[in-house]
Structures are given as structure tokens and as C-alpha cells.
Amino acid sequence: MAEATTTKSPTRNRGLEPSKAGDYRRWLRQMMLIRRFEEKAGEAYSLGKIGGFCHLYIGQEAVAVGSLAVLGPDDYITCSYREHGHALVRGVSARTVMAELFGKADGCSGGKGGSMHLFDASLGFLGGHAIVGGHIPLTTGMAFAIKYRNTSQVAVCYFGEAAVNNGAFHEALNMAALWKLPAVYICENNRYGMGTALERASAIYDISERASSYDMANEVVDGQDVLVVHAAMMRAVQRARADKHPTLLEVRTYRFMGHSMSDPIHGHYRTREEVEGQRKRDPIGVWSQRLIGEGMIDDAAVRAMDQEVAAEVEDAYQFADQAPDPAPEALYTDVYAHP
Amino acid sequence: MNLTYRDALNQALREEMQRDPDVFLMGEEVGVYQGAYKVSRGLLEEFGPMRVVDTPITELGFAGVGVGAAMVGLRPVVEFMTWNFALLAIDQLVNSAAKMRYMSNGQVGVPAVFRGPGGSALQLAAQHSQAFESFYAHIPGLKVVMPATPADAKGLLKSAIRDDDPVIFIEGEMLYNTKGEVPEGEHLVPLGKADVKRAGRDVTIICHSKTVGVALKAAEELAAAEVEAEVLDLRTIRPLDEEAVVTSVARTHRCVVAEEGWPFAGVGAQVVDIIQREVFDELDAPVIRVTGADVPMPYNKHLERAAKVDAARIVAAVNEVLYR
Q: Of the four listed, A94, A205, B106, B316, which is most buried by Cβ atoms within 10 Å?
């Protein structure tokens, strides 16, 4: 391989840096915010306030938090349909994300996108996309635009492991490597594409190996450890900005909830024991214990932080509940720029 | 200037790339090979490989690359070697390009042109001879443009590139060598405007793309029999120029709609719907559609001829609406 590097085992979690304690506490808070937000979204769904499909991110919080922390304000981000957490971390307010789930005019997509299509162009948050794999070429296109304009931005794409068997994944990664584009492809391997285990869908189990087909740098990353995710993302983003070379990160994580609201936590395709075993590596628990152990936070502060994010989520819920529906005329707006 | 349809398209691309540095061309064989149909001849030499991008044979992938680049403000012209191959990219055209503006509540547009040859050619058989405009025209968020003449090819392509919405630009595969007068320099034909290619008072023949030439030939034959047919070229399928359709049919009171595509849910079905809704009382006869045969295109040249729209079939349809 010319430029590609492969790390086969999860990167070791190195020591914490005292000067970054503020960042570390912020990451914990962001993960806790996602957790509380998603719990509330699940509750709102069961009350009929959220319709359609709703895919919760609980269990995977460290992936969005650790990776998005590396990006700058001009970078581009696209996600799959399990993207509430990414939107929150990127800075879309809990109010406007919740309002979007409620289909309200004050939602970040005006109530016309819903849970699967969150957008905030002002933050470079260019969508939740809901055809598996379909947004991966879009990211390659954004990375192409970065190269075309010769800026130092990076384009980042989040998708699940089920997308890697899709043609769009291969086509997009091949072109990114062929043209040396500043992209980072983040495969959140949560082990199941809906109810199909990775081993029942993919001929090879190390998704990172797929990158070798394109001579692309790649790493396997422990997705339950926010610091490990952050370190891997630092390397990938540096490679994109400085070397204009893309990276595939296979971030191994686990979805603690069902695929969507209609899917029970365990049942046909995974056992209660498996889920409970995975829950022992809850990314929020792992990180809060680490920070407490290092003396960077204490129990009382963690509890206070939890109360703070719970209040933020409650405020978002009330805001969404009281926000107006889109005006009837919105049905026909924004189909075309110039009809 | 007398130019071929191919060179008129080339001129439009060159002028728009000179005018706007955000415009670039990508697709299979557009650069080094100079274009499978030579539409992009000379562009690589003039603009370099960053703006004339040869892609792998990966329609889904590079259509998505075009959409992604457009989402962040570039103005890609994505060439499909033919629209037959674009079927592999239809998810990107329908789910990404067409819907991005709506589902982002107007935050993210896709100012891209997807272009290439469509329609039937000669003995290319089932997978290389088909007309897909009705597929794309079905989709809110897309515009569908189909020039029939070199002048329209240039003027419509320039307008399509400047348009802020995704445009499906379907060129006639059999039209590339046709010649006509093309205005030099800034020649813009607005999207959504039909054009009377031949004026007449007795019957309106509504058509687009390659069928325009067929209809003009039919009109000539009819003129010999003292029937003055008006040939209305839609030019843009979506947005469709309803006013031009209504105005012409209200004057002639009789109408034939011709297209290369299959009959079921075709463009003509939409045109007929407009006519029955808007000018029902003006009609002196039911509108008749002339379409490609409702079969996959056969290879054998006699069967192929029987599957295509020709002047004789249009003349027969006109005679029928005139009760002659």
C-alpha cells in the first residue's frame, strides 16, 4: 500500500491530559444530553407526538461526540437516519431537533423532514438521509467540492455497517481514494442492520478491510470509549486536511434499543443476555467513571450535569409541544427554487 | 452559425464553463476520450482535469458525487453516456436531487444538470433504446428538458446550467448530427416554454425531442393534402407549458400527441389530461396519442421500425381526428 495505514486492533486508550478536562466534561455532558433526549423522544413517540419512523441512538453516543469534537465550523457532515445525536452535538439546538421530530414549523427542517431528515445548513449539517448508503456518494461529492475549491475543509459521513454491502458505499469510496479527496467515512458498526447480524450479511467481518480494496487508510475503533474515537478521528481528519487522503473508520459500537420504535430491545435476533452484557460498556458510564477516577469530576457534579441536561430536554419537549404546525401553504413551498 | 446539435451543446458547455468557474463536467469518457458522442470535444484541453472529470463506470456513485457537490454550491453538469445507464443512478436523482430542497425546508438546493442521450437509436435493442422522460417528469423537484433543434439545444442547456434546480436534460441520440442555425454567444431559451415549430390552423401536433422532426415531416405531407398542421414542440416536459398547449388546441380544435415513449402513463397522457380539463368544449374530436409500441425495443430492423413513431402514423392519426 502506498499511503494507506491499517490499525487492526482497537486503539489503546491513552492517558488523559489535565489541560483538556473542560473538553472531557463537555463530552460527558453531550453524551448525557443525547441519552436524555432520546429517552424523551421514545416517550413522546409512545404518546403519539412523534410519527413515522424514529431511530434512537442510545448506546452509540460516544461515536458522534468523540468524532464531531474534532471538526471545525466549515466542515460538512452527512448522516444516516439515526442522526438525532449528531445534530445535537453539531450544535443544532435540542429545541429545534425535538420540534422537527414533532413535525413542527420551528423544527430544524421546518417540520417537512422529520426524524430522518434533520438539516442545518448554517452548521454544515447536511442532512439525515434515509436510503441506506445513498448519502455516502453525496459526501464524496462534498469532498470533491472541497478539493475543487482548494480549501482545508473535510467532509464526514456517518452510516451503519449494513451500508457497506451496498454499491453506493463501494462506488463512493473508490472515487474518494482515486481522486484523493478529503473525506472521512465513519461506519458505526452496531452489529445489526435492522435485525440482521453482520455475520449473516457480510462475507468478511472486519469492515475496515473493505478499505484495502481502495488503498484507503482505515482503522478499527472502540466506539464505546469517547477518547479512543476522538483520537482516531484526529488522525483521520489530519490525513484529510493535510494529505487530502480519505479514511474509513470502523467504529465498533452497540445499539441498546431496538432498530426503531417498533422493534423490541431483544427478541428474535439478539438475546437479553447479549444486550445486558453490552450495556456493561455503556459509553456514558465508561467515561464518567474514567473522569471521576482521574479526579476531573465528582459524583455530585455528574448528578448536577444530568439534572441540567434533563431540564434542557424537558424545555425542548415543551417547546416542541407548543410550537405551531407548518402553515398549510408550506405544503407547496421549496419544491423548486424557481417553479 | 450553422451547427450540429452536438456542437451546439458543446458551445453551450464551453460558454457556461468560461462564464462561471463553479460549472464543471463529469461523467464517463467526457475528458480524454472527448465524449462518447463527442459533445465534450476539446473541453478537457481548455479547462483541465479538475473541471472535466472522467469517472469510472459507476452511475449511482458519480450521480451522487454531482448531487453532493451541488449541495455545497458547485454547479455540476453530470453526463450519462446514455439515459439507459442512468437507471443505476435513479435513487440519487429521485431521492437525493429532487427532494433535498423540500426536506431541508429550502436550506439545501441541488443546482445540477444531468444530461445525455435518450430515446431510441438504430438497432440497439431493448436495453439501449428507450425513452424515460415520463419517469423523471413524474417527480416533483425535477425539471425535464428535451431540445429538438441545435438552437434549442444550446439555449436550453445554458438555461439549465444557470437554473438553481436539478434539471434532467435528455438529448436525442439520433439528433446529434442534425444541423441548424444557432445564434452565437448569449443565446438563452427559457425553461418551461413550448415553441411553435410550424404554424397551422387545422390540427395541433404536440411533440418533443426527436418526434418534432417526425411531426414536421408529417405536417409537410399533410400540407400537400391541404391540411395545415401546427407543430408544437414542448421543449420542456416539466414544468410543462400548459398555456401553449391550451392556446393552440383552442384555435385548431383538434389534436394529436406524439412521443417516442411507451403509452402507459406517458407524457402524452399528461398533455391529454390538460386538454380535456382546460379546453374540452373546444374539441371537435377526441385527442389521439401516437407512441412507441408497448413492447421492449426489438433488434430486428423491420420489427424496430414497426415499434417506432413515424410520419405515416402521425398522418394517419391526424386524418382520424379530422374524420378524413
A: A94
